[in-house]
């Protein structure tokens, strides 16, 4: 009897403590934010450029803002301090992504890395990426592939008549996707197959879908805009193609003896030391991530860097002169030159500041209620970090609308990541796994293009159109076209 009473007493005590602890944070206020409308929340305040609308609202309500997007609670961090509060202090609690119906099917039920639940499977997939592709050692081993593909790009631009404008994003996408194709499955897949090219366009167009069903679950089943139907079509198409590619790849494994590619290495190491195993769906999801997250943001920021330099020719000349002094004109830029090219690095950082390719990062979601910066944040709150607003905040950056790489030179570490001032790759546990590779490729490709060619706008065009378009990422609304003329000795393009 005494035991039963003691058990009941302890159980009640636990329940009481649990309730008290759970309730404690609710005494804190929610962060400020717009009241919103019934059911729709603040959805009517957010248009086709959500990063701009959220930045405008943050000016009114502050850098840590709470609003309802449909029926979901969301916090928007728009300052370095607010970003640190979530991605460092409350990082563990925000290590998951929200479940979004628009990506569920395309990611094989969140079996990829980007949307995977934070846990052992996610760790294994990230480890496979780092060990066999994106970590320092693998990255160095793969440098001949990048060198080859940048050579192909430079020669194709040299051979384009100086009267035919180059469509810059198309040329960049082709290079990024062929690098990825060779690294992942030893194929220049983008140039080989029209269908693959078309499918990637399809994927990038539809991965950025904004689905009301995600935001207002009660209308989800109706699929009002036919989005689920479109996502289903794109997924079926991707799955059929990737299944065939993997079968072809497996059939010629003997041809790659002694020089395995990423898929070979993943297949060999798909069982982790803790027994966790990457399934076929995980492998397909991973490939999906690599061909989308691994290509598009780099392409986007490179296009912006070139657009800014064409608009500011004195900056272009300074980058060229830095490279001419170090490299000369008889050879092309090598990745090993990059650490000495401080102005080129500053140009790339400035491009990431003014044009973060993923303006709202990727969404995170809280698992438990918590306190951030003195505010109560409920469980299941979606988090968006407005990287675009942070890069244009006049309290952080002098004359933020100016493209001024000099701000990153000799200034004692302006834009330090540790201060969360410049975090285009995100931060914390879910930080971009391709950060080192992305930075390297952006510097290498932008540097190679500017060292190898003079750039100007097509005849009759006076200014670069700098309008943005919100999609999977934030590219230029009007693709950059330009005329190039070679500036290196002919042998340097070999
Ligand atoms: C300029 C280039 C790139 C930019 C600006 C960029 C940006 C980002 C951002 C903002 C995130 C979300 C971080 C967060 O949730 O806090 C992310 C995640 C991710 N990125 Fe990148 N990225 C780039 C290049 C790459 C490359 C080259 C790869 C792979 C080859 C890659 C693969 C991924 C993956 C797999 C994730 C999900 C990580 C996770 O959820 O654990 N990215 N990226």
TrEMBL record:
Give the metabolic or biological pathway.
Answer: Steroid metabolism; cholesterol metabolism
**BP term (GO), one:** cholesterol metabolic process
UniProt-listed InterPro entries? Cyt_P450, Cyt_P450_CS, Cyt_P450_E_grp-I, Cyt_P450_sf
Give UniProt keywords alphabetically. Answer: Cholesterol metabolism, Heme, Iron, Lipid biosynthesis, Lipid metabolism, Metal-binding, Monooxygenase, NADP, Oxidoreductase, Steroid biosynthesis, Steroid metabolism, Sterol metabolism
Q: Name one GO molecular function term.
A: oxidoreductase activity, acting on paired donors, with incorporation or reduction of molecular oxygen
Q: Which residues bind heme?
A: 432
List the cofactors: heme
- The answer on whether this UniProt entry bears the keyword Cell membrane reads no
Highest taxon, organism lineage: Eukaryota
Q: Does the keyword Manganese apply?
A: no
Family in the record: Belongs to the cytochrome P450 family.
Instruction: Output this protein's name.
Output: Cytochrome P450 family 75 subfamily A polypeptide 109
């Amino acid at each position: 009897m005494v035991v039963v009473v003691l058990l009941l007493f302890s159980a009640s005590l636990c329940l009481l403590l649990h309730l008290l602890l759970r309730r404690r944070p609710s005494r804190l206020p929610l962060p400020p934010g717009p009241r919103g409308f019934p059911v729709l929340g603040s959805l009517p305040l957010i248009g086709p450029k959500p990063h701009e609308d959220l930045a405008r609202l943050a000016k009114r309500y502050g850098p840590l803002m709470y609003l309802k997007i449909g029926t979901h609670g969301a916090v928007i961090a728009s300052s370095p301090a607010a970003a640190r509060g979530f991605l460092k202090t409350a990082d563990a609690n925000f290590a998951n992504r929200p479940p979004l119906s628009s990506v569920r099917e395309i990611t094989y039920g969140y079996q990829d890395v980007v949307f995977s639940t934070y846990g052992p499977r996610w760790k294994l997939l990230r480890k496979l990426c780092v060990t066999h592709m994106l970590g320092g050692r693998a990255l160095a081993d793969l440098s001949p592939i990048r060198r080859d593909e940048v050579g192909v790009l430079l020669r194709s631009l040299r051979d384009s008549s100086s009267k035919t404008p180059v469509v810059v994003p198309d040329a960049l996408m082709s290079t990024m996707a062929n690098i990825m194709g060779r690294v992942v499955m030893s194929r220049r897949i983008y140039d080989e197959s029209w269908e693959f090219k078309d499918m990637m366009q399809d994927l990038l167009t539809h991965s950025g879908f904004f689905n009301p069903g995600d935001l207002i679950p009660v209308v989800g089943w109706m699929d009002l805009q036919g989005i689920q139907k479109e996502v289903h079509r794109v997924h079926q198409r991707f799955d059929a193609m990737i299944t065939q590619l993997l079968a072809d790849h497996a059939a010629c494994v003997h041809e790659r003896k002694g020089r395995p590619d990423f898929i070979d290495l993943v297949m060999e190491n798909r069982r982790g030391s803790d027994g966790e195993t990457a399934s076929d769906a995980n492998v397909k999801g991973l490939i999906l991530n690599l061909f989308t997250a691994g290509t598009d943001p780099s392409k986007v920021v490179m296009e912006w860097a070139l657009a800014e330099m064409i608009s500011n020719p004195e900056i272009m000349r300074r980058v060229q002169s830095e490279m001419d002094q170090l490299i000369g004109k008889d050879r092309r830029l090598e990745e090993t030159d990059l650490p000495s090219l401080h102005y080129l690095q500053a140009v790339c950082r400035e491009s990431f500041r003014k044009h973060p390719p993923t303006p709202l990062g990727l969404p995170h979601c809280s698992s438990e209620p918590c306190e951030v910066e003195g505010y109560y944040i409920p469980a299941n709150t979606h988090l968006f970090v407005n990287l675009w607003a942070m890069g244009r905040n006049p309290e952080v950056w002098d004359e933020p609308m100016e493209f001024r790489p000099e701000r990153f030179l000799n200034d004692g570490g302006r834009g330090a990541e540790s201060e969360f001032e410049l975090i285009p790759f995100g931060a914390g546990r879910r930080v971009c796994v391709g950060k080192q590779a992305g930075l390297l490729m952006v510097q290498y490709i932008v540097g190679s293009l500017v060292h190898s060619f003079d750039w100007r706008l097509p005849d009759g065009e006076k200014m670069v159109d700098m309008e943005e378009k919100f999609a999977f990422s934030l590219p230029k609304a009007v693709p950059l076209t330009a005329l190039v003329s070679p500036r290196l000795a002919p042998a340097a393009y070999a």
